[in-house]
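Render this sequence as a predicted structure.
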Amino acid sequence: MDKNTALNKIKKCLRLAKSANEHEAAAALRQAQKLMAEHGVSADDIEMMEVSEQMARATSSRIINWEAALAGRVAAAFGCEVIACRRRTFMRPTLYYSFIGCGAAPEVAQYAFTVLLRQCKAARAAHIKIQPRSCKPATKTARGDVFAYAWVVAVASLIDSFSQSEANTNAIALYKAAHFPNAGKSEVTDRVTGRNIRNADAEAGYEAGKAAQLNRGVSGMEERKALQA
């Protein structure tokens, strides 16, 4: 039996340990303790059992400010934390945003981020398309980034952050320490400073972002707000 299988069995035993039947609860607790000893499962492992992660691919190999802001806002909305990480695919490192949380939260956060990212990318591309032909490519990129960041700000104003319990916060912190021990502050690529950007870019982005639709109940999380295309 590998450790993951043992963890699942321990989880079942701990559920049974909450039984109203004292004898059944005691037997389940003894079995859980036995499995923990046999498979080297620690108290931290138990605390992390409800924590998982779901990854969503970024649009670029570099961390872009508006995309990172969107990932952070979505993570907060669903009681998750997010880490930018790279995975090697086809001999090339690919950037992902990993949503870490308890229960179904990471899956829902990943879904919401993917849907919103698609919307924001489309709106940004449309804004870039209407720029004058005389604009340099770097200027168009900068104006698109300003537009997209304002779009994210508008969307953020529509979502309330989910208040995480202390137990979940601790469990997520343990998971991050175990799985991302070297995670630090990520460097965000600045494609805006020094470019010919305008207030109109931000204003257009904010107005476009306000058009996002909010509805409740994604993947069974009835009390959480989610954005859907």
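Summary. Residues 105-129 form the longest helix (25 residues). The beta strands are 51-57, 81-89, 92-102, 214-218, 221-227.
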